[in-house]
Amino acid sequence: MIFNLEMETMAREDMQKLQFERLKETLQRVYENVPFHKENFDKAGVKLEDIQSLEDLQKVPFMKKTDLRENYPFKLFAVEMSEVVRIHGSSGTKGKPTVVGYTKKDIENWSEIVARALCCAGGVPGDIFHNAYGYGLFTGGLGLHYGIERMGAVAVPISGGNTPRQITLIEDFEPRGIAATPSYTLNIVEEMKRLGKNPRETSLKYGIFGAEPWSEEMRAQLEEELDIKAIDIYGLSEVMGPGVSIECYDAQDGLHIAEDHFLAEIIDPNTGEVLPYGQEGELVFTSLTKEAFPVVRYRTGDIASLNPEPCKCGRTSLRMSRIKGRVDDMLIIRGVNVFPTEIESVLLSFKQLAPNYQVVIERDGALDRFEVHCEVTEEFMNQAEDLSASPEVGKLLKAIGHDMKNALGVSVVLRLHKPNALPRSEGKAVRIVDNRNKVLA
Ligand code: DLL
């Protein structure tokens, strides 16, 4: 182990003391340097002296994604541009992109956070590491890259796409670790099989998967197909990028938060009230060390819960559950709340289905109609021959429908497709297609 685990194994009171010291510094820095934060404090009637404990942070108003858009591009930066060495951001599919910045020190901290995360996930110095996250404004590629180098491993900066070449390089370079979105990794697996190769026979031992919601069933499938440990890594550009939290190789039981850098809260997304450990709600983060782009009570939109129990790996850090989904991606089907990951769990328990699906929402008069589109595997297709007529298909649809109803509490309309009929992603998979406001040409 190249890092001492001091920060990850600290007694909780000591960690909370450290967090409080860093919180005070952060709040002072943003109050003095970012008009948005000063206004937020002043409007809420909160003074810096009012924050005398970690709990007092609850007096401070939240920050939301819209605040980033309204302050586009650099108005939330807390340092002069001359101190900024890197910019990242979102693709901006909904209006203006969101932009974040890093100082030299921020990049050093982030690299160390990711290196620590990789060690937690089973990485060791000397590993060759295949990094198939996209390089660019997205934080996945470069975020992982700097951490791989900082750990003392060899980064293969392949980025996303060109799947046959990914496979060639995995064969030739013999990496021990791989990082990509879970959905893209399954596309690589699919392509390997198409090329007549056995994905279980690669040199890979562990995979660092995140950037999109994924289920336990998806983990089981990745581990089985590639004969690796599939580790969940979480992060978001607003807070830093990948590495905010990660599972450990030993337990794979919740994601350890890098608490010396990020303070986590869970709130009720409707009322904003802070919820106790164990309860599910929206994750909120405050950065504790960031210089260029500090965030204070940033509402992530991600649904999870927190667990303060020490882990069997020896770490004492707060763990967050796997992300169930995003608040905005929650589907309300006849009054029942459903996340795409819950649909995924049911679909992936059927061996006849490929791990690729989309939920399509259409407007049907005054009502919304939800259709779950999924693909059958090549094997099933060979057996069934014709998807519209085969009795096998009828049986399969009935069985999936039954399990969906049991798991979700509502029945959904299922549409089966031939293998490879649905679009594949090279990064984050698009699981929800919302056609309700589509203007027909
Ligand atoms: O996706 C950072 C990242 C890169 C994380 C590589 C992990 C690996 P953004 O593009 O800003 O940053 O998107 C952040 O992606 O709010 C979640 O909704 C989702 N997300 C990220 N990691 C996970 C995960 C990167 N492990 C948004 N499970 C977040 C579920 C995740 N959702």
Could you outline the blueprint of secondary structure elements for this entry?
Blueprint: H1 6-9, H2 12-33, H3 35-43, H4 65-70, E1 84-89, E2 99-103, H5 104-120, E3 128-131, H6 139-151, E4 154-156, H7 163-173, E5 177-180, H8 182-194, E6 206-210, H9 216-226, E7 229-236, E8 241-246, E9 255-257, E10 262-267, E11 281-287, E12 298-304, E13 306-307, E14 319-320, E15 325-326, E16 331-333, E17 336-338, H10 340-348, E18 353-364, E19 367-376, H11 378-384, H12 391-408, E20 413-417, E21 432-434
Parallel strand pairs: 3-4, 3-5, 5-6, 6-7, 18-21, 19-20
Antiparallel strand pairs: 1-2, 7-8, 8-9, 9-14, 10-11, 11-12, 12-15, 13-14, 16-17, 18-19
Helix pairs in contact: 2-3, 5-6, 7-8, 8-9, 9-10, 10-12
Bound molecules: 5'-O-[hydroxy(phenylacetyl)phosphoryl]adenosine (DLL).
